[in-house]
Amino acid sequence: MQKTPSKNWFEEFTVKCRRYNLKVTPQRIAIYREIIVSKMHPTADEIYRSVKNEYPNISFDTVNRTLLTFAQIRIIDIVESYSGARRFDPNTEDHHHLHCIKCGKIMDFIHEKYDSLEMPECLPENFRIINRRVVLNGICRRCQITE
User: Fold this and answer.
1) Would you identify the CATH topology of the domain 93-145?
2) Is 20 left (phi over 0), alpha (psi -120 to 50) or beta?
3) The pTM is what?
4) Fewer CB within 10 Å, N side or C side of the chain?
5) What does the alpha-carbon distance between residue 46 and residue 141 come to, in Å, rounded to a whole number?
6) In this prediction, what percent of the chain has a pLDDT beyond 90?
7) Stretch (H or E) spanning 139
8) Domain residue ranges of the chain, discontinuous segments joined by +
C-alpha cells in the first residue's frame, strides 16, 4: 500500500509549511514532490539525484537537511533501515512495514489490530506515544527466488 498523492498535495504542503513558519521555496517543493511520488521509501541520496536534474546547483546537504526538517514538522516520516542510510516515508497515516532483510525493500501494509496495540504498563508515565508502527522483517518474494 503506497499512499497516492492527493490532488491538493501542493496546497496541503503549503499549509503545513506555513503552520511551522517554513518558507515554501521551489527547491522544497521539488524535494517534497519527489518523495510523495516515490513508489519506495527513498534515501536522501535518491531524492537528491532526482532533484538535481531540475536544480543542478542544489547540494546533497540541502536536500538532507530539508528532509530532516520535513520529518521534524511531521509531513514525512523517517523509517527503519538496515542499510545505514535514512529512508523517508511520505505516508504519515497509520500503517506498518514489511522489511526485506536481503534487498532492503520496505513495503507498507495496514492492519487494524496493530494500530490498536496496547502499550506495555512498564513504559514511563511521562512518555507520550505519538505513533505506533509494527515492522515485520523477512525476505521478499524476489529475494526468495534468488536464494
Assistant:
1) Dna Ligase; domain 1 (3.30.1490)
2) alpha
3) 0.82
4) C
5) 24
6) 59
7) none
8) 9-88, 93-145
Three-state secondary-structure class, residue 82: coil
75-83 LR contacts (CB < 8 Å, sep 24+): 75/13, 75/16, 75/17, 75/32, 76/32, 76/35, 77/131, 79/41, 79/106, 80/106, 80/135, 81/41, 81/43, 81/106, 83/43
Extended beta strands in the chain, E state? 77-79, 87-89, 96-100, 106-109, 135-138
Terminal-residue alpha carbon distance, the chain: 26
Give the bridge partners for 97, in sequence order: 108, 135
The predicted-structure confidence for 70-110, as pLDDT tens digits, reads as follows: 999 999 999 877 777 889 998 888 899 999 988 888 999 99
Give the architecture (CATH level 2) of 9-88. Orthogonal Bundle (1.10)
Across the range 6-25, mean pLDDT stands at: 90
- Could you identify the residue written with the cell 504498563? 121
In terms of DSSP bridges, do strands 77-79 and 87-89 run parallel, antiparallel, or are they unpaired?
antiparallel
113 secondary structure, DSSP code: H
